[in-house]
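Assess the record.
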Amino acid sequence: MKITYRVHAVRRMFERRITDADVAELLTEGEEIAAYPDDQPYPSRLLLGWRSNRPLHVVAAYNAVEDEKIIVTVYEPDPTLWDDEFRRRKP
């Protein structure tokens, strides 16, 4: 499987000190907390994972034809916007 990073994701990773290794681990070990099957051009999903007690979210799309995961964005969820487990946005 090929992994492609969008420019936006690379910028956010640099700003937030999130590494390729962090993203790779979330892609394999992360928990899917939301699915966006209607996203275009490819369906995507929001993953939650933890790296050294740090919660991280990755939005990744999947291009099945090319067997490619496309990293759309990566961030540390803001605790004021997410529940205590970082699985759901606060109302």
